[in-house]
What we know:
Elements: H1 7-15, E1 24-29, E2 31-32, E3 38-39, H2 47-53, E4 56-62, E5 73-74, E6 109-115, H3 129-147, E7 158-160, H4 164-174, E8 181-184, E9 187-188, H5 190-198, E10 201-206, E11 208-209, H6 213-221, E12 230-233, H7 235-238, H8 241-247, E13 250-254, E14 257-259, E15 264-265, E16 268-269, E17 273-274, H9 281-287, E18 290-294, E19 298-299, E20 304-305, E21 307-308, E22 323-326, E23 329-332, H10 338-348, H11 352-368, H12 384-392
Parallel strand pairs: 1-4, 4-6, 5-12, 7-13, 8-10, 9-11, 10-12, 13-18, 14-21, 18-22
Antiparallel strand pairs: 2-3, 14-15, 16-17, 19-20, 22-23
Helix pairs in contact: 3-4, 4-5, 8-9, 10-11
Amino acid sequence: xxxxxxxxxxxxxxxxxxxxxxxxxxxxxxxxxxxxxxxxxxxxxxxxxxxxxxxxxxxxxxxxxxxxxxxxxxxxxxxxxxxxxxxxxxxxxxxxxxxxxxxxxxxxxxxxxxxxxxxxxxxxxxxxxxxxxxxxxxxxxxxxxxxxxxxxxxxxxxxxxxxxxxxxxxxxxxxxxxxxxxxxxxxxxxxxxxxxxxxxxxxxxxxxxxxxxxxxxxxxxxxxxxxxxxxxxxxxxxxxxxxxxxxxxxxxxxxxxxxxxxxxxxxxxxxxxxxxxxxxxxxxxxxxxxxxxxxxxxxxxxxxxxxxxxxxxxxxxxxxxxxxxxxxxxxxxxxxxxxxxxxxxxxxxxxxxxxxxxxxxxxxxxxxxxxxxxxxxxxxxxxxxxxxxxxxxxx
Length: 395
């Protein structure tokens, strides 16, 4: 069994005991300093919370992380429980509000284990034509927002979720005219490092790296060049909803599929099979200044449409979804009614192989609901595409 939760909530749920008592925490660090301070490595995450709450602690000192990681981190120790909470004085992405080190009560430490083990990094797929098209639609829309005076020329702080498409968007931004960009994100992927190397991205605040093996080795070998340009925070700060909203983040996250009204499924295939957790996508989608959900319009060689009549699992409701992007095009859903959203999503984002069927579903749903035309559905058919796939292997 697996409990899925927004990353900004996970530390709080641990504080209040919803996961039960934390008996033992195994926490990876890059080094233990003579005074007992801990240098985090390529991830901070919730390490501070586990060190605070665990009855016993095992420290894994991983020498694969260069000692030069010291100075890359900002660990906030001002968290309090309601009603004693204080405002988070984070006014710009690279502002330090905490300490460079983790701390632990030495009496809790029952073992120190030395390792030399690379991060578990997965390779990214080569950027294909669909990913390039998605990135081009998104970048062109950013230009449109600048012309409309809704974004500054250097954009607002960027957030990019994990995945091949989001990584491709970062690559396209490196070839764009935008200068002086910054990022306030959750993870740093290859594309974001490439943006730093290009000089287009001046700085990144995150909680962890998620690099390919080759890029991780390159980063470790040249780590000094990135000091002052990368800051790794605790997860509760990298994903803090109030900070995300105040900084005006532009969020880019992947999706499994979306329905014609803009409800987005980030986590499940066919409603029941979880393929990844919600992660921080909800923290950013709900609170960002501008949010994009991106996906190819087809999966499994065309057997699955990423635009469906009704999402079989909903992680982000239509109220949180602003912009959908596939290789087919972009649907700006801000300020329009559900039926207008449906028409725009079908016309701009659905693959031509499925577009006529989606239009037919919508028109019949409107006709069949004379007193329920706000968000019309045919309840007997709403999930029929998913049922057909399970029965035949094709929607």
